[in-house]
Amino acid sequence: MITDTQRLIKATSRFGHEIPVYDDGFGPLWIHRHSIGISGIVRAQTWEDAYSICEDEFFPEADETMEELRAQYNVKREHAKMIRPPSSEGGNIRPATLADYPLAEWQFVEWKTIETPCEDENGWVENELFCEAFGFRPSGPNSKDVQNHGIYAKDLNGDRLDILTPKLADELGITLTMEDES
Questions:
Q1: Hey, what long-range contacts does 52-57 have (CB within 8 A, 24 or more apart)?
Q2: What gap in Å lies between CA 24 and CA 16, rounded to an integer?
């Protein structure tokens, strides 16, 4: 599809819309798609390099400010197995401890998520809900970022990065423009 002597200049959808491109100099072409459509085409040597470029160049910036992110996600989340003791010991439900095992007489009730404020002001970056919804641009903020914090929003409906084969380009109606390097 692309040779070592060519450079990717432009990509266009079947509807005539320009698709963002990034040429890292060599390697195959990769296409990144999310729940809405195509976010970009990148040329990179490995899948990891291509995904990293997508994080930097194509993923949308998180709309939230750093203060909003800290306020919402600066909590430690623990998942506790809630148990009820045998009826002879009263019926108070409590989190299971290591001393409770084996749980022969205890009754499992539910899993409960317990959130407690983090003592570390940067604990929010390890919060599992933050990690599910956001990521950090590998190269920091890009020129299009407004918040300028280098955090992008993930597509919660999923995304995928595949090698762009001639067959896939044809199926998606993508036209590529390449230029020979001299």
A1: 52/138, 53/22, 53/24, 54/161, 55/135, 55/137, 55/138, 55/152, 56/137, 56/138, 56/139, 56/142, 57/20, 57/22, 57/142
A2: 24
| pLDDT attached to residue 107 | 83
Three-class secondary structure of residue 48 per DSSP? helix
DSSP E strands in 24-169: the ranges are 29-34, 38-43, 75-84, 94-95, 107-117, 134-136, 151-153, 159-163
Cα 116 to Cα 123: distance, rounded to the nearest angstrom: 11
Buried/exposed code over 159-176 (b: 16+ C-beta within 10 A; e: otherwise): bebeebeeeebeeeebeb
Q: How far apart are CA 24 and CA 128, in angstroms?
A: 32
pLDDT mean values, one per 10 residues, the chain (182 residues): 91 96 94 96 97 96 95 91 76 82 80 90 90 96 94 96 97 96 77
Can you give the pLDDT at residue 108? 85
What is the chain's alpha carbon radius of gyration, rounded to the nearest angstrom?
24
> What is the structure's pLDDT at 39?
97
C-alpha–C-alpha distance, residues 118 and 126, integer Å = 10
In this structure, are residues 2 and 24 in contact, taking their beta carbons and an 8 Å threshold? no
- Closest C-alpha to 139, from 148, 150, 149: 150
